[in-house]
Amino acid sequence: MYNDDFTTGVQDGLRLAKRIYYGNDRSVAAPKPVTPMEKATRSMYPTSPMVYAVIYNQAIVDNPDMPSYQPHVHGRCDPPALIPLQMNAISFDVDCYFDTAFVTMSGSWRVHCVMGNADCRCRVAIPMGEEGSILGAEVEVARKSYSTQLVSLDGNGAKVDGGSNLSIKVRWSQKVVYKDGEFILSVPFSFPEYVTPASKKLPKKERIQVDVNYGPTTTTEAVCKTSSHPLKERKREPGKLHLMYEAHVITWSSKDFFFKYHAFTTYPFGTVLLKSPSTPSIDQRDMFSLYLFAGPDERKKVFRKEVVFVVDISESMNGNTIEVTKNALIAALSKFDEEDSFGIMAFNDQRHLYSTTLELATNESIKKATQWIDTNFIASGGTNMSIALDQALEMFSGTRKSIPMVFFITDGAVENERQICEVVQKELKNKGSELFPRIHTFGIGSFCNHYFLQMLAMMSKGHYYASYDADSIETRIQMWFSKAASSILTNIVIDGPDDLEIYPSTILDLCYNRPLIISGRYKGNFPEKLEAKGTLADMSNFTIDIKVQHTMDMPLEKVLVKKQIESYTTQAWFSQDKELEKKIARISLETGIASEYTHMILFKTESPDKPSKSGKKQGKKELDQRGPKTEKVTVLHHLGLGFGNMVATSENIPPGFGPQVPNQTEMLERAAGNCCVDVFGKCCCMCCIQACSRINNQCSVVLTQICGALTCSSCCE
Fold first, then answer.
1. Which top-level group of life is the source organism from (predicted)?
2. Engineering a disulfide at 346: which of 161, 313, 531, 673 sits with its beta carbon 3.0 to 4.6 angstroms away?
3. Pair 99, 183: CB distance under 8 Å
4. Residue 696 above 60 pLDDT?
C-alpha cells in the first residue's frame, strides 16, 4: 500500500535533486539514492514538518544561484516529483495543560531546486501528535502573506520563484499521553539529512520551548523524568515548569522530541479548576475542569469482564483491514483473566455467532475462539449493524459483579443509525445505567459516521476510538481495548451546582492507566470541596475529596471547547436540532476551533512593491494606494469529519480507497485549463500547501486546502 503517488513523487524528487549543481564545495552532497529497502518501507513519509517543491516540468530543476546550463530535459512528471526543500530554521513552542498541548511550529524553507526565472507549487506536510487538531496556519512569501479564519457554512495568488524563501507557521492542539503515572509529550522533530541547506557547514539553530502548567492545586512540583533532547530549566513557579532546548547544529535533529514528566506523588489524586469567561464570550457561564488520576499501580483490582466483540466483516473490510482487525482481536483475547467471559459476533448482511452464550476465558476456549476467527472473518456482503447489536445486548448475565461490555468495530455508515441509538436509549432507561452494557465503539476510516459511534458510546458510558490509517488500526484497537478494560471505579457520581453541563454528557469509568477528565460549564456557586463517589471492583463504595481552586492563567476555554463542540455536534446529529447547530457555529467562530458547521477561509495580505528605481517622487494619494491590501482569497474545503458515507458503504468501498472527491488543487487545475503547460513550460505558481492526509492519521488536513487556494493570477482568469 506504500506504492502511492506521494512515495513515488518523493522518490522521483530525490532523483531529480541529484542534478542540482552546488559548485566545488565538497561539503555539499546530493541526496542519497533510495535503496530497495527504503522503497519497501515508509521512509519517504514525513516524520517532521516538511516542504516539497511540486515539479511537473523537469526542465525547471536547477540551482537558482548557480545555473548549471544543463541540456533541456523533455517530459512531464506524472505524478509530479516532490523535491524536499532545504530548511533554514525550525522552532516549536508547546504549552501543556494536563492532557492537552497547544503547539506552534515556525519554520523557514528555501526553494533551492528551481531556476530563478521559473516558479512552482509547494506542498507542506505536518505530522501531528495524538488526536491532533489544526487551529490555523500562516504563510509568508514574496511580500505576500496568507492566514486562515473560520466562517459559517454560508460560504490571485503568490508566485514562489526559484530561490524564494517560505516562512510557515502552523498551530494545532494534541493530546499529551498519560501512561504509568507519567505525562508523555511527543512532537515530530526527526528531519532527513537532505533538508540541511546545501552550503558550507555553518551552524544552524533549532529550538523547542515547553511550558507546563498543571494548576495551583498540586502540593508537589513537576519532575522531568526523561527527554530526548537536553532541556534547560528556565523558570519554576508553583504549578508551572518552563523548559527550553536550544542548540546550534551542523545537521538538523534526527530524532523526534519527547518529554516525560509527572506532577503527583500520591494516588488517587483529583483536582478541579474553575475560571470565569472572558467578557465578549457568547457563553457567560463559568467553566470548570475536573481531573481524577488513579495512578500507575496495575495491581489495583479491575472489574471482572463480560465482553461481546461485534465486528464488521462486510466486503469493504477486505484485505489488510480485516487481517489487522483479526490480529488485534486475538491479542485482546490473550489479555483476559480466566474469570472473565467473552463472546464473538461477526456481521455483514447477517450475524455470525461464535457461541450463543458467553464462555469463560480459559486457554482452551481462547484457542478455539482464535480458530473460529481465522475461519469466519472473511470480508463479504453488506452492512447490517442493528441485527448484531440487538443480539449482543441480550447476551449478558445481568450480574452486578462484573462490567458488561460490547466492543463494536465498523468501517461503514447505515440509514438506521438514529433508530439504533433510540433503541439503546430505551433499553438504558428500562435497565438502568448500572446494569446496561458499556458500548465501546471503534470507527475505521472516513466512511463511517463517527458521530453515531460517539453517541452510542456516550449514551452507555463507553469509550470511542478511531483510526483513519490502515497502518494504525491494530495498534489503536489494542489501545482502545486496554483503556476500556482497565476500569477500577464505576458508576461515578460527582456533586456540584444544580445547573451543571458536562462534556461528554455522561461520566465514564475511571481506569488505572488513563485519567478521568470532565469539563463543562455551570451557573451558581461551586462548592469549595467536591466529592466523587463510585463503586470499586469488590463492590464496595469509594469516596474521594477533590479540592476546588480558581485559576487565572490556565486557558480553560481553549482546553474544553473542543470537547464542547464534539459533544454538541453529537447531540445535534442525533436530535437534528438546527438551533444547536447554529450555536456550535457561533462557538467555533469565537474560539477558532473547526466544526462541522463552519468553513475555513483564506485571507491574503499583499504588501506594496518596492519603490521605483527611477526615484520619481510619489504623491500622497499614490502612497496611500501602496499600503498593505487584505482580501479574501477563497473558502477552503470543509474540514470536519462529516456524518458518514452511506453510498460508499453500500458499494463496499474500502476505507480510504476507491473514488474520491477531487481535492482543492485538482479542482483549480481543472478550472485553469492548460495554463500550467502553456506558459513556456513553467509550473503554475504556488497553488498548495497541503498536508498529505493519506500519509498517516496524524497529519494535518487543513493544509491540504490552505495553499490549494493560492493559485496564480493566470489560473484564476
1. Eukaryota
2. 313
3. yes
4. no
Please tell me the distance from the alpha carbon of residue 678 to that of residue 674, in angstroms, as a whole number.
6
- Please choose, from the candidates 65, 157, 72, the residue with its C-alpha nearest in 3D space to the C-alpha of residue 114: 65
Residue with cell 526542465: 59
Using DSSP, state whether 711 is helix, strand or coil: coil
Contacts 24+ apart (CB under 8 A), 133-136: 133/172, 133/173, 133/174, 133/562, 133/593, 133/594, 134/170, 134/171, 134/172, 134/594, 134/639, 134/700, 134/701, 134/702, 134/703, 135/102, 135/171, 135/172, 135/173, 135/592, 135/593, 136/170, 136/171, 136/592
Distance between CA atoms of residues 88 and 276, nearest Å: 42
| Region of residue 165 (phi > 0: left; psi between -120 and 50: alpha; otherwise: beta) | beta
Q: Does 262 score more than 60 pLDDT?
A: yes
> Which residue type sits at 622?
E
pLDDT one-digit tens code per residue, 452-474: 999 999 999 999 999 987 778 99
pLDDT at 359 over 90: yes
> Which helix (DSSP H) or strand (DSSP E) does residue 217 occupy?
none
Separation between Cα atoms, residue 176 and residue 181, nearest integer Å: 12
The secondary structure of 344-364, three-state, reads: EEEECCCEEECCCCCEECCHH
Pairing of the two strands 402-410 and 438-444: parallel
Amino acid at 210: V
What is the mean pLDDT of the segment spanning 209-225?
76
Q: Can you spell out the DSSP letters for 532-590? A: EEEEETTS-EEEEEEEEEE-SSS-HHHHHHHHHHHHHHHHHHHHT-HHHHHHHHHHHHH
Reported confidence tier of residue 693, pLDDT bands at 50, 70, 90: very low
Angstrom distance (rounded) from CA 660 to CA 593:
26
**Helices vs strands, H then E, count in the chain:** 16, 32
Residue 617, C-beta contacts closer than 8 angstroms, at least 6 positions apart: none
277: helix, strand or coil: coil
| Alpha-carbon gap, residue 160 to 114, rounded angstroms | 10
Return all residues near 497 (Cβ < 8 A) that are at least 6 apart. 522, 523, 524, 525, 526, 527
* Nearest-angstrom CA–CA distance, 410 and 424: 18
Q: Please, what's the b/e burial string for 608-625 (b: 16 or more CB within 10 A of its CB; e: otherwise)?
A: eeeeeeeeeeeeeeeeee
pLDDT in tens, 96-118: 988 899 999 999 999 999 988 88
Distances (CA, A) of 336 to 327, 330, 700: 15, 11, 37
pLDDT score of 433: 77
Cell of 261: 514528566
Find how far residue 622's CA is from the centre of its chain: 47
DSSP-derived 3-state class of residue 138: strand
Distance between CA atoms of residues 343 and 437, nearest Å: 13
pLDDT at 630 over 90: no
Please, which residues have CB within 8 angstroms of residue 473's CB and are 6 or more apart in sequence? 321, 324, 325, 328, 444, 467
Contact 208, 92 (CB under 8 A): yes
For residues 187 and 94, give the distance between their C-alpha atoms in angstroms, rounded to a whole number. 9
Q: Provide the grid cell at 101.
A: 498541548
